[in-house]
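Escalated from tier 1: NAP holo job.
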Amino acid sequence: MCTTGKVIKCKAAIAWEPSKPLSIEEIEVAPPKAHEVRIKIISSGICGSDKSALNQIIQTNFPVILGHEAIGVVESIGAGVTVVKPGDKVIPLFVPQCGSCRACNGRQSNICKKFEFAFGAQSGLMDDGTSRFTCKGKPIYHYASTSTFTEYTVVSDICVAKVDDRAPIEVCLIGCGFATGYGAAVNTAMVTKGSTCAVFGLGGVGFSAIVGCKDAGASRIIGVGTHKDKYPKALQLGATECINPKDYDKPIHEVICEMTNGGVDFAIECAGRTETMMTALQCTYCGNGVAVVLGVASPKDTLCLHPGLLITGRSLKGSIFGGYKGSDLPKLVLDYMNKKFNLDHMVSTKLPLERINEAFELLSSGTGVRSIVVY
Ligand code: NAP
Ligand code: ZN
Ligand code: ZN
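Tier 2 regenerated the structure:
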């Protein structure tokens, strides 16, 4: 039955209020308006940032449909959409690409001026100030320009990247976690051949950073994490050793500096804690170490550092979505399909939408790597 132009009733996981389990509900998804795209979601990963939004570390309005790491198929398009057509396989983009701002016109940044998260609180609404989702007569907010914990979503046409039609379900990870970690190594840190790296936080982003460091030719990659059961997978993906801060009675940056003749060349923070961000900087070599912050801290958190840490030549950087623009994703997907890297190792659990709260529990316990909802 053709659904174009009609309201679609489908299942979605709604966060009615902060820090509570999601609730599976029937929702109505309105047709896309001008310059909007309605997408049937195929699979969606559960990212640390979804947990952070649920717990209000990332500011968002409630009730909301979370989820931002997905792959799907275009169901229908609104007037004026030229970038995709019904039937196209797509990755929704939580970092828009408007095509006309300073970032979109240059190569140096992916932070499009339409990226609300970078410039303040998210509205959770489409450009016309309304939502496309309704449940029990109430409008439900969008999240991160994407909202993928639903069978159907609507996004702006600047928040969608067309990818290869053969891309399998694991490619949802390229919609956030994989691109974020991998890109942090190859685009932001610019890890060099033969270098020494440390990756803090062995979740989906951290594992992807390890893959990026390996592909960039690092000769030593130290995974730093508190769950030893994840070490075999980290080693399989490219870590050369893994250490647990809890095993030492001195600060872990001192341990790493001793292990590496004064510090690593590159450290990538993927745990989302200000302590690990500082540790990442402190464990880099004083002369030219580069620390990259990926983890999202709460709005109240601050980093307090002595300028002396930087004056000898260290740098502290950060990136969102690994510095990638939506237009970079087709190539990243092809690289995966041509076996440049293996995303399948990163998927620790596949669940139906009805069991999404189990995925949040796995994420909170730190035991899984990446759970994906398969629709
Ligand atoms: P995740 O799966 O929850 O992974 C975070 C990991 O950090 C946990 O698995 C935990 O595992 C580890 N951790 C916690 N405390 C630690 C500590 N004290 N020392 C070392 N490791 C610690 O989340 P994720 O999806 O990988 O995301 C990681 C962070 O990146 C989150 O803050 C998320 O919001 C952020 N993020 C940022 C971007 C971006 O564009 N910049 C994109 C996606 C996500 P172990 O203890 O086993 O290591
Ligand atoms: Zn732009
Ligand atoms: Zn994410």
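Residues 8-24+71-137+152-177+323-374 form a domain with the Quinone Oxidoreductase; Chain A, domain 1 fold (CATH 3.90.180.10).
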